[in-house]
Design brief:
Elements (H helix, E strand, L loop, with lengths): L2 E7 L2 E7 L5 E4 L6 H14 L5 E3 L12 E6 L5 E6 L5 E4 L6 H14 L4 E4 L9
Parallel strand pairs: 1-8, 4-5
Antiparallel strand pairs: 1-2, 2-3, 5-6, 6-7
InterPro entries: DUF1508, UPF0339_domain, YegP-like_sf
Organism: Phascolarctobacterium succinatutens YIT 12067
Pfam family, one: DUF1508
Length: 130
Amino acid sequence: MGKFIISQAKNGVKFNLKAANGEVIASSQVYKDEKYCRKGIASVINNAPVAPIEDQTVEGFTPCKHPKFEVYKDKAGEFRFRLKATNGQIIATGEGYKAMAGCKRGIESIKKNVVDAKIIVEAPKEAKAE
């Protein structure tokens, strides 16, 4: 079972979705506060299981309707994905993969792990005394 970890970020809060093995399989943007971060998590839970994959690495690809996983190549030549909600907003992104197969396995892992994922709020890290 996966879990969403909500943690402090520089200008707000963000989440990481971790698979059962502890690997981070998707990350969010930085949200203003926890309430909006939880709305982002709810959107991932609702959209990921039904989202098709739009392979933008193929010339002349057919665009899919939202929600969808967009797969693309980054500047380093790695395969990446972003999950877009029904309104077209990016709600989660993945790491870079050397091969398309790995990228697609990452997407399948998200679809599987969001179903019963727990939400855990990480305690803020203490500021170090100087």
